[in-house]
Structures are given as structure tokens and as C-alpha cells.
Predict the structure.
Amino acid sequence: MNNITICHVNLARGFRGGERQTELLIRYLSDSVAGQYLVCRKKSPLIEHLSDVKNLTVVEVSGRLGGHFSHIRADVINAHEAKAAHWVLLENFLRGTPFVITRRVPQKIQKGFISGLCYSRASRLVGISSPITGYLKEISTRPVVTINSALAHLDCKSAKTEQILEEYRGKIIIGHIGAYVDRHKGQRVIIEAARLLEKERDDLVFLCLGAGCDEEVLKNESRDLKSVKWLGFQKDVGSYLKAFDLFVFPSRNEGLGSTLLDVMDYDVPVIASDIDGIPDIVKNYETGLLIESGNQFQLAEKIKELLKDTALADKLAKNAKKRLSMFLPESMAAKYLDMYQSILQERE
């Protein structure tokens, strides 16, 4: 065990991909460090998710800049989302603690004095995919490293999977998981692809899991389609993954797309957008199929291709499963730990 203490800061209100990765990192670091702190909002879902982790002290805050007088004594601080960057900057000014910013989204950073200070004073900047790392190197002179997100090894309940398969008996189940926010996840592409496919066959069903601000709009726009089902947020995601025959991920922007890793872990062939960090995971005709972002015609054609060529679908799933060794949570935690140690060694 290393005699260092890490403080993680995640001020998101919900629980999405970035929060899952924060949870995984804290969990897989727990046996390797002396202690950890988590600074999060009050009633953050992270608190429940991490309730069983030893040597973790949770500091709940009501605003973006609270908690600085909570007797946090960390060697390194890690900001895990955009709002947390301001928090770690203030902590750095107050106590001189070195900090890391993990950048998870492909959007450009808003220019401003405070943002400039955050990214100029960080000891390290982490990009979760090669496009994000490249962008960070363009805007900052600070050291930048790539540490990919990791798969979560989601549990599956056989009884739940059997229930899903029974409910959609005789159907080919095409899955999608993502926040119901079309400008990000591109669910309208699924709707239009389903509309094209319904003209040719009646044995397909699209099960879309998630929640978000576009839920009612998306339901209304697909009301005429028998094949599209909006199932809302589901805790038992692994049971659905086990039931999927294919998985579609037509994102319009995506830092990496760590959901794809969990899908591949269940041997499900994937079709995803050729955008941002997704090609770090999906290699076209090697570990999945890539389509042009926003192109419902390509999505429909690729679905038909995999349904017709089952040998190709099996090959993609097997190749993807083999490549998952690059995205294990223990590997991600080891890379972060090496980085934290190198930061402290530089300060000695």
C-alpha cells in the first residue's frame, strides 16, 4: 500500500458515465492508498454507490465551492468533471495541494480567466480518449496523459434476462443505453432508422434505456412506431445487455463512450458513430461497425448487414471482447496511481 491520500471531486447532480468512472477509480484504488476523500453534492448517488468502500471519507457540499474547511488533508486532488475544476483550484490556492483535472467531454473549454487558471496550474491534465488528449495539448502547456475509461463488469440477473426475452419472444432485440438527450446521444437517428426498417420487417424491437430532458419529445416523435420502446432509467443494466442481440450508439458527440465497453463485455456486436473518442474503442469491421454521425440510412443498412451476416457479427463481438484487456478498471486505477506518485515525486 502507498502512503498517500487522494481527494476526488465530482459535483455532478446525477449519475452518468463520468460518475461511474469516478466510482470505479475510487473502488479500485481503495487497497492501494492510505485513504481517500470524495467531495460531492449532498445526496449525490455516488454516496450510496461507494458506501461499502473502506478508508473513504465523504464530504457533502451544497454548492460548487463548499467544503474547503472540512479538514481535508490530501496529497493530490483529482477533479472529475467541469464544475470540480473550480473547486480544486481554490483548494490549491488555500493549501497548495497539487491537482489533476480529468477531462471527459470533447467540447471545447469555455474561455475565461478562471478556466485559464485551472488548466494552467494543474499538475496533470487527463484525457479519457485520444481526441481529448490532443485538444488538451493544444490549449495547455501542462503535462497531458491519456487514461481511458474502464468497463464496469455489470452484474446480470438471469431471472430478469429471461423475463425480458420472454416479453420480446420472437423479436430481434436491438439495444441502446444513453441519456435521453438527442443533441448528445442521437436518439432521433434510432427513430428514423427504425422507421426505415419497419417498412421491410416486423421482427425488430429497439429497447432504449435512459432518462433525460428529451424523453417526452422522443416518445411523441416515435409514437407511430411499434418497434421503438422507451424503457427509462434501469438499475439492472447488465440483465438487459445479456438480452440484446445488437447494440446501437449513434452519438453526435462522445468523449469515449464507456457504455460500449460494458456492451462488449456481454459479447454484443455494436454499431456506433465515427465521432470523437468512439474510434478509440470501435475499430471498423474489427471490433464493431462505424457510421457517419447523424446518418439514419447508414444505421439501418448496418443493422441489416449484421442481421444477414451472423458470422461477421460473431467475429466483431469476439474481437471486441479480446480488446477489453486494454480497458480494465484495475489498469485504469494503476495508471492514475502512477500519475499521482509522479506528481508527488516532482515536489520532493
